[in-house]
Amino acid sequence: MNTIALQSFRPTARLVLALSLVLLLSAFRHTDVDTQTNPAYVDYTFDAVYVQLPTANDYFREYVAERLAKEFSKSNVCMYTTEDLFSPFRDWTDEERRAVLSERGVSATIVISLESASERASPGTIFFNTDLGTATHVQAKSDRAVFHVRLIDIETRDLAWTAIVRTRGSGSLFVGDKSTAKAISKHVARSLRESGHLLR
Predict the structure, then answer these.
(1) How big is the CA angle at 192 (ends 190 and 195), to the nearest 5 degrees?
(2) Of residues 74, 81, 19, 34, the one with CA closest to residue 56
(3) Cα–Cα dist 172/121, whole Å
(4) Which residues form the signal peptide (predicted)?
(5) Over the stretch 111-123, which tens digit does the pLDDT of each residue have?
(6) Residue ranges of domains in the chain
(7) 3-194 domain in CATH 3.30.70?
């Protein structure tokens, strides 16, 4: 490597390192969960569950379903979604839905509803490389979301367990539907285990 190339490489390497450090230090995902269990359902567990996300878009619903299915499989729980059980090309009565769920051995349903969400991008920072005459713009992104999660006994239609999940992310790596879906799925499953409703 000649002297000119080496001089050009060193500032570039320093710039890449500086940008990487900025991105890592400003990137995180934090989630808080508040849960409550119905006293009549302290030891309530299930072998199969029907998960609904009525307020989610298709992409987010797909991300959460994929993640939750993996989490539930760790406890040998079979998970179904609306797409798995009910054809969109016909109308289903409550009795017909209950019959389908009963045939699959589904005794519980989990409803995950988005209560609020926001996303923003700040002006960011511009890094200059005077040796190469270049500038790199790094924009800071962040998001927040609050979800209401309900575990319902299908037979009695009683609310067995409820949770409020608050999650916020910062940095491109931790902002967006995939990151939020991963956090929600992980913490819903963890909270169900900690509450005794999902076997460890």
Answers:
(1) 110
(2) 81
(3) 10
(4) 1-31
(5) 999 887 656 555 5
(6) 3-194
(7) no
